[in-house]
Amino acid sequence: MYRKIVLGLAACLALSACGQNDGKKGDAAPAASGVQISGAGASFPAPLYAKWAELQKADTGLALNYQAIGSGGGIKQIKAKTVAFGATDKPLKPEELEADGLAQFPTVIGGVVPIVNLPDLQPGQLKLTGPVLADIFLGKVKKWNDPAIAALNAGAKLPNLPITVVHRSDGSGTSFLFTSYLTAVAPQWASVGASDAVKWPTGQGGKGNDGVSGYVKQTPGAIGYVEYAFAKQNGLPQASLQNAAGQFVAPTAESFAAAAAGADWTKAPGFYLLLINQPGAGAWPITGATFILIHKQQADAATGKAVLGFFDRAYSTGDAAASELAYVPLPAALKDQVRQSWSAVVGPDGKPVFTPAAK
Amino acid sequence: MTATTDIPPAVAAAPPRSAFGAAFDRGFEILCFASATFLLTALGGIVVSLAIGGWPAFQAFGFAFFTSAEWDPVQEIYGSAGAVAGTLISASLALLFALPLSFGIAIFLVELCPPVLRRPIGTAVELLAGIPSIVYGMWGLFVFAPWFAKHVQMPIMMSAKPGTLWEKITTGVPNGAGILSASIILAIMILPFIAATMRELLLTIPAQVRESAYGLGSTTFEVIRKVSLPYIRTGAIGAVMLGLGRALGETMAVTFIIGNAHGFPTSLFASGSTIASTIANEFAEATGVLHTSSLIALGLVLFIITFAVLAIARLLIGRQANL
Questions:
Q1: Cα distance from B251 to chain A (closest Cα, Å)?
Q2: What are the two backbone dihedrals, phi and then psi, of residue A249, each rounded to the nearest 5 degrees?
Q3: Which residue of B has its CA nearest to A71?
Q4: In a domain, B18, yes or no
Q5: Residue B287 domain-assigned?
Q6: Any chain B CB within 8 A of the CB of A1?
Q7: How many CB atoms lie under 10 A from the CB of residue A118?
Q8: Which residues contact B64 (CB under 8 A, 6 or more apart)?
Q9: pLDDT of B28-86, one tens digit each?
Q10: Which of B210, B190, B193 is nearest to B202 (CA)?
Q11: Strand (E) or helix (H) holding A199
Q12: Which residues contact B259 (CB under 8 A, 6 or more apart)?
């Protein structure tokens, strides 16, 4: 028995040693042939960044090494300068950017949608307002046939079923956006507040979008919230929400784009803007961009140029890939504004590291 | 190497060789000492870095960090009591379920099993130990939890009389996620470790001892109860503590199925959290100094609990050995 264990351990060590060697060789090869940039952060846009990198690699030889370690990790890594860029779902405030000499810009738009498990209702039939959603997540509205819900859903057959609240257990940009929305539209939510992890007054926590949707699917009468891309890819039954214009809208690519188009980015230094409860008749109220962080003062101009060049190409050629993966591309005007802001990223000589091609 | 040690002193006294041999021996000694102390140093380093990392939290909350079950990242108030309670409850329940079962497996395999079945069952138990914990987590969430909710949780909840204590400790969301489900998954995970060790221990019993007992006219049950089990008692405690140690630190599987609510668990079916699941959930996205350091401090608490369990095991084994 012990001999077996020892032999097994030895085999494992030998294997992992080989693996490491292979890894080193693999890493060394592209560095010799093309530029390699490293990034770390939010897991939400990771599939898209990987797709963009794959599309560009053939043309430019640029190799992107993106680690989806979470927004918090991305912020820590870029502050420690261990990566060329950080990525976060939760934008840093202008004063935070200033303190660390960082520039910030959005790459793509996503949003959060409430998902429900109500067998008697058609998907998308349920209508909710922000304050009612807040009362549900506060545990104040406990049954689906509560008058507050019934008043919004005249004619719908609401069951006498207890509401099971499901939230994210892990710290996440999705929770940040969702709680920011509840804070913005419902004064009673102030007792909980907005953050990527909060003290939930009620309900169960599922790990990741998978965990939340798993609990919701298995529990009749459950309500949770997930990223739009995840809900769309998995065909989860969503609820409609009332937006700032008083309209009930369903979460679609169009309603996210409407929220982004209605926003005034020119008045947002560092692009610090959450697309919460935006004006516009068709705007989805829980929308947000995901962001890139990069040091304004680049020690190596070539790296900074490669990073900005990557996102420049992605803006120009990557919209189709984004839509395919159920992300919403930025409006063209915003892309140009971002490109202009890149002049603040300078190399050791004080000159901008990247100049976008004139249109 | 063997030459230097095996040669009689008279021959080894030849000057150049002896000098080399002495130096080599000295070097070898240092090497061995370094290997032996390396782990100790690493262990000390981990404790110190956890203590340093968690210091801001200990400073901010003082002793309340250990007694409070409040965990509020927005207000930045953190206490470890809820997670500690969840950890201890789920690990003890897991042990409670796994212990009799693993005893049964080990005794069956060694004493009663027909030789044809011995290998397949033994291998199956060992394979169970090789399943990655994330797989247990996914299986627990998507397969076990719905089954458990329908066939165990719902009948129990329906049959509980209102107002009784039983009703109080069996309330919860009827979807199979909670403290009890997590404990059962944990029990399945630690089962192979305890069972395999137990089997090895039973195999160490000399055949004469058992045969003498049979020779005196004991039944199989009497041999197991009065001869085999007392013989392996010391080692068995070690095996159990090994399992408990694993249950305390298990992360992924628990995170998937425990429901992840902070604070004290109020019933068997209620959501809870453990130290490991809280760290796994929040560490990646924790940006505030206090949040990060509270999570590191939680790690230190878990370290202390695990250390205490091992120390108690050592103590028990020592006492048994002296009897």
A1: 12
A2: -120, 150
A3: B285
A4: no
A5: no
A6: yes
A7: 22
A8: B79
A9: 999 999 998 998 999 999 999 999 999 999 999 999 999 988 888 888 889 999 999 99
A10: B210
A11: none
A12: A204, A205, B173, B177, B178, B179, B270, B271, B272, B273
> Does A14 have pLDDT greater than 50?
no
The answer as to whether B322 is a domain residue is no
Record: contact A204-B145, CB cut-off 8 A = no
In tens, the pLDDT along B2-11 reads: 445 555 555 5
Q: Which two tokens stand for residue A168?
A: 């994210």
Q: How many domains does chain B have?
A: 1
Characterize the bridge pairing of strands A164-168 and A204-206. parallel
d(CA B251, CA B186): 10
Q: How many CB atoms lie within 10 A of CB A112?
A: 26
Burial (CB < 10 A; 0-12, 13-18, 19+), residue A1, is: exposed
Interface with chain A: mutation pick from B287, B289, B298, highest number of A CBs within 10 Å: B287
Share of residues in chain A with pLDDT > 70 (%)? 90
Whole-angstrom Cα distance, residue A15 to residue B31? 25
Contact B106/B122 with Cβ under 8 angstroms? Answer: no
Residue keyed to tokens 């063209």 = A332
CATH no. for residue B89?
1.10.3720.10
The one-letter amino acid at A275: L
Q: pLDDT at residue A301 above 70?
A: yes
Q: How many CB pairs under 8 A join A and B?
A: 98
Tell me if B221 is assigned to some domain: yes
Q: Do B238 and B317 contact (CB within 8 A), yes or no? A: yes
String of b and e for A292-328 (b: at least 16 CB within 10 Å)?
bbbbeebeebebbbbbbbbbbbbbeebbebbeebbbb
* pTM of the full structure: 0.77
Q: Which domain holds residue B160?
A: 81-274
- Who's near A10: CB < 8 A, 6+ residues apart? none
B274-305 residue pLDDT tens: 999 999 888 877 778 898 999 999 999 999 99
Rounded to a whole number of angstroms, the CA Rg of chain A reads 23
